[in-house]
Amino acid sequence: MLGLGFDDFTVTAIAVPMMHTSGLNVLLLPTLITGGSVALLPTFDAAGLLDLIERRRCTFAFALPAGMQFVAAEQERCPRDLSSMRNWLVGGDTLPVSLQQRWKRLSECPLVEGYAMSEA
């Protein structure tokens, strides 16, 4: 997972189920294997996720495109300091260009489109 920038300074925000491959294999295990730390939310909540990122100075997060729409709307409504973020992985469906453009106006953190079993 070095391509996504996981290292011992990584703080990954996780708000997806651990029973799914994205929660366990894409987020939790690579973070811990590379010496990083994990900040968990019990369920996906856009405001809670943004608060967690700001409070814990998270560097990496994941969301489905539909969830990312809620995150973008919440960030527009009540901006949080997301300057600690290095990568935001979006997967599970196609990432709309309109969402990419919207997010560029809200954050310098890039949205990285994931392609895996769901997309295949």
Describe the protein in words.
- By secondary structure, the chain is an alpha/beta fold.
- The chain has a single domain (2-113), classed as Rossmann fold (3-Layer(aba) Sandwich).
- It has four helices and five strands; from the N terminus they run E-H-E-H-E-H-E-H-E.
- Strands 2-1-3-4-5 form a five-stranded parallel beta sheet, with helices on both faces.
- Strand 1, helix 1 and strand 2 form a beta-alpha-beta unit.
- The longest helix is centred in the N-terminal third of the chain and has 13 residues, at 21-33.
- The radius of gyration is 13 Å and the shape is globular.
- 26% of the residues are buried.
Identify the notable features of this structure and list them briefly:
single chain; 120 residues; alpha/beta; Rossmann fold; 5-stranded parallel beta sheet; 4 helices; 5 strands; 16% strand
Structural class: alpha/beta
Mean pLDDT over the residues = 90
Separation of termini? 20 Å
Please tell me the CATH architecture by its name. Answer: 3-Layer(aba) Sandwich
- How are the strands of the biggest sheet laid out side by side? 2-1-3-4-5
CATH topology, what is it called?
Answer: Rossmann fold
Principal-axis shape = globular
Low-confidence stretches: none
Work out the count of structural domains: 1
β-strand amount: 15-25%
Q: Cα-atom Rg, whole angstroms?
A: 13 Å
Q: Helices and strands, in N-to-C order?
A: EHEHEHEHE
Question: What is the makeup of the main sheet?
Answer: 5 strands, parallel
CATH class: Alpha Beta
Percentage of helical residues? 25-40%
- Helix count from the secondary structure assignment: 4
Overall number of strands: 5
